TrEMBL record:
Main location: cytoplasm
Name of the protein: HAUS augmin-like complex subunit 1
Keyword Nucleotide-binding listed: no
Subcellular location: Cytoplasm, Cytoskeleton, Spindle
InterPro entries (alphabetical): HAUS1
Keyword entries, A-Z: Cell cycle, Cell division, Coiled coil, Cytoplasm, Cytoskeleton, Microtubule, Mitosis
Alphabetical list of Gene3D superfamilies matching this protein: 1.10.287.1490
Ranges in a coiled coil: 58-89, 262-289
Pfam family, one: HAUS1
Keyword RNA-binding applies: no
Similarity annotation: Belongs to the HAUS1 family.
Length: 293
């Protein structure tokens, strides 16, 4: 039985797994501390998650530093070995001995810095002017890349704001009652359509009557005042019917393109959501292309 587990861990597999991982981390930290103290007792310290996290980070950094130091030592050994195996002319050896003997500490440090800079820049020559041009080119490239990163950051912020705006609009469309199709809309639309058809039929009937009035009267110029009043009333009725037809047509046109069924209307909303997802994918593709370029 694993004694490092608490009693509650036996009832929670995830907690048991977490406690086993912590026990392994503590074992790694204790081994690292034992190696550092080399047989001496490790000072007592509080054992909690914060201390464990700090010690793990310190151990990882120390191990990386040890690996880098070991790698540097190997590189130096190989360089010295290669230098010893390289045949040096007597004149060059004399110059090298004179340099190493007569250089001041500051001069030796400057020569070491020049050599290190040449190696770091991968320059073909230690000429100070060439090294200066290389450094200027590197600085210019770094500045240009920083400007590109600033532009990309601005573009990212703009796209994020637009994305949030589109999501807010989509949420408003899907949740706002003003955009919800009323349940009585199909019935009202059908009633308006019937009224429109009826009024159109009456308008045609009245127009036919008006067209037949001059031919039906043998003497149109001698029409009685009652007939004129009746014709005027019919004209007013026709005009009123025509205005009602236009009003109903306008109200019906406002609902053109909207499905009568509520589920179909919701389908239109889902289609708009898919279009939004397509726009998002297109935006991400454009952004990835911009970053890759």
């Amino acid at each position: 039985m694993d004694t490092s587990l608490s009693p509650t861990a036996f009832f929670s597999p995830s907690k048991a797994k977490q406690q086993r991982a912590q026990a392994q981390d503590w074992a790694h930290v204790e081994t690292w501390l034992s190696n550092k103290y080399r047989g001496r007792s490790i000072p007592p310290f509080e054992r909690n998650e914060a201390t464990l996290s700090a010690l793990l980070a310190l151990a990882a950094a120390n191990e990386r530093a040890d690996e880098e130091a070991e790698l540097l030592r190997r590189v130096q050994e190989e360089a010295l070995k290669e230098l010893e195996e390289t045949e040096i002319a007597d004149s060059d050896a004399e110059i090298l001995r004179a340099l190493t003997t007569n250089l001041t500490p500051e001069g030796a440090q400057s020569l070491e810095a020049l050599a290190g800079l040449t190696v770091a820049l991968d320059a073909s020559s230690p000429d100070p002017e060439a090294l200066a041009h290389t450094l200027i080119n590197i600085h210019t490239t770094s500045h240009r890349l920083s400007q590109h990163l600033t532009d990309l950051s601005t573009t990212t912020s703009y796209l994020s704001a637009e994305h949030a705006n589109l999501l807010a609009q989509l949420d408003s469309i899907t949740t706002n009652p003003a955009f919800t199709t009323p349940p009585t809309l199909p019935r009202e639309t059908a009633a308006w359509t019937r009224q429109t058809k009826q009024l159109r039929a009456k308008v045609r009937e009245y127009e036919d009557k008006l067209a037949s009035l001059p031919s039906a009267a043998p003497e149109a110029e001698q029409l009685s005042s009652a007939s004129i009043q009746r014709i005027a009333g019919m004209e007013e009725e026709v005009l009123g019917a025509r205005e009602r037809v236009l009003g109903l047509e306008t109200r019906v046109q406002a609902f053109e393109g909207l499905p009568q069924d509520r589920e179909k209307a919701r389908g239109v909303v889902r289609e708009k959501e898919r279009e939004l997802e397509g726009l998002k994918r297109r935006r991400d593709g454009l952004f990835e292309g911009l970053v890759g370029g």
